[in-house]
Task: inverse folding
């Protein structure tokens, strides 16, 4: 899997990707992360990539030329998809991460300031993705969310692929409670069912806890799951 990120702040991407599981995935050649800075493609001698909006208004808008030229400089693989991080996009889901993990290349456009010149959308035609109903100062954090969540679905990133298969949302439900040593802490004990070695009982317990937790915390998911 190759990630190509269009960003004005490549250090934000590289800093995160130099840590923990993503770092190990890169070192193992499971994934590759590259950054393309639109400032390197601007025709302005001051490396300007934004300007005031036509029609007036607060803030600055990202110019089409640097972003389109930067995007067109990327060598596209045959099995490639292009995404744009924007609050106007479709809500990102666990299913998206699974679907996107099947591509050989994911290209992500990170916005900033007041957003993109509309002609960037018209020319590149990306799939627009939002990670929630809120606004951030830039698209780098959302892009990292995608890199992380997609990478987890690629065999070789995690120690065991089953770790991703049992995460929250993997089967439409939130994850069941987890416990580790010690067996008792501050008067709170690990449920006995997890200690008896009966795997059928453990799976039944965990599934029931998933249903209970999802109904309590995400009734929308619970309703969707039970109405399948």
Result:
């Amino acid at each position: 899997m190759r990630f190509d990120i269009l960003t004005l702040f490549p250090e934000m991407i590289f800093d995160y990707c130099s840590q923990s599981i993503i770092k190990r995935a890169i070192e193992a050649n499971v994934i590759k992360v590259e950054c393309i800075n639109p400032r390197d493609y601007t025709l302005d001698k001051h490396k300007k990539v934004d300007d005031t909006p036509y029609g007036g208004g607060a803030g600055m808008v990202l110019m089409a030329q640097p972003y389109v030229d930067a995007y067109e400089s990327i060598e596209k693989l045959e099995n490639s998809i292009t995404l744009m991080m924007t609050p106007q996009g479709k809500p990102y889901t666990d299913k998206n991460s699974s679907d996107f993990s099947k591509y050989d290349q994911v290209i992500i456009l990170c916005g900033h300031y007041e957003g993109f010149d509309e002609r960037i959308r018209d020319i590149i035609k990306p799939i627009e993705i939002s990670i929630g109903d809120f606004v951030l100062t830039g698209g780098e954090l959302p892009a990292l969310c995608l890199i992380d969540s997609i990478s987890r679905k690629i065999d070789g990133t995690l120690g065991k692929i089953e770790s991703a298969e049992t995460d929250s949302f993997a089967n439409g439900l939130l994850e069941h409670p987890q416990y580790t040593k010690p067996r008792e802490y501050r008067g709170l004990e690990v449920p006995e069912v997890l200690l008896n070695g009966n795997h059928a009982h453990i799976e039944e317990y965990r599934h029931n806890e998933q249903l209970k937790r999802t109904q309590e915390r995400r009734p929308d998911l619970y309703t969707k799951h039970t109405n399948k």
Observations:
- The chain has a mean pLDDT of 94.
- The chain has two domains: 2-151, 168-226.
- The chain has nine helices and nine strands.
